[in-house]
Specification:
Blueprint (H helix, E strand, L loop, with lengths): L2 H14 L4 H8 L3 H8 L7 H11 L3 H6 L5 H50 L4 H28 L2 E3 L6 E2 L3 H6 L2 E2 L2 E5 L6 E7 L2
Antiparallel strand pairs: 1-2, 1-5, 3-4, 4-5
């Protein structure tokens, strides 16, 4: 997907409809700056905005993703290319999130240990010790919550029995035994418990 090409296409279609960036933004309940960002090729509409935008501009989603009006001949080819591009972008995003989970988890644990260590050995005032201990627990709980969210929502878990791919509940992820990206979970389809691997597609 070429963001600059798509941006120019959005601008062209908008002008054909005699809409300013401000008017288009109001119709989509977003800021004018967001529309400008799209048209400059510095961003792309969120998935929730694609269909409303296409409806306003009287184009289809495939044309928006391709950045041009499509004939019947080119439609199928572009549809397939766009699906592959979206799949690749989604997989890259999931890999990025899973890497980010490791980084944030590591930084959070280090920060927690440093704060506890500082409270125990470098601070004499009882009040400041309590403050550091409270801050350290706030940090670790926030980090754990963020990592739990990524772990649950980035990608899927695949059942080792029926190969069903699913997103487990937060409590299942929180309380399940795990080794790296593999968790001991109950599959919602076959109802069997097993070690289920994380998969990104």
């Amino acid at each position: 997907m070429n963001l600059e090409k798509t941006g120019c296409f959005i601008a062209k279609c908008r002008k054909e409809k005699a809409l300013t960036q401000e008017k288009l933004a109001k119709k989509l309940f977003i800021s004018e700056k967001t529309v400008s960002k799209w048209e400059c090729g510095k961003g792309f509409p969120d998935s929730a905005l694609i269909l409303p935008l296409c409806e306003i501009l009287e184009i289809n989603a495939n044309e928006l993703l391709s950045g041009e009006k499509l004939t019947d001949e080119g439609y199928k080819k572009c549809a397939e290319e766009n699906l592959i591009a979206l799949k690749d972008a989604n997989e890259k995003n999931i890999k990025h999130l899973l890497f980010l989970e490791w980084v944030i988890g590591f930084v959070g644990i280090v920060a927690f240990l440093l704060l506890i260590f500082s409270a125990g050995f470098f601070v004499e005032s009882l009040a400041w010790r309590l403050v550091l201990i409270i801050v350290s627990f706030v940090v670790i709980f926030a980090v754990c919550g963020f990592c739990l969210h990524i772990e649950r929502n980035a990608g899927f878990y695949e059942c080792s029995h029926c190969h069903n791919k699913y997103i487990p509940s937060y409590s299942a992820v929180l309380w399940s035994m795990h080794m790296g990206r593999t968790r001991y979970l109950k599959c919602p389809k076959c109802k069997k418990r097993s070690w289920n691997k994380k998969t990104i597609n």
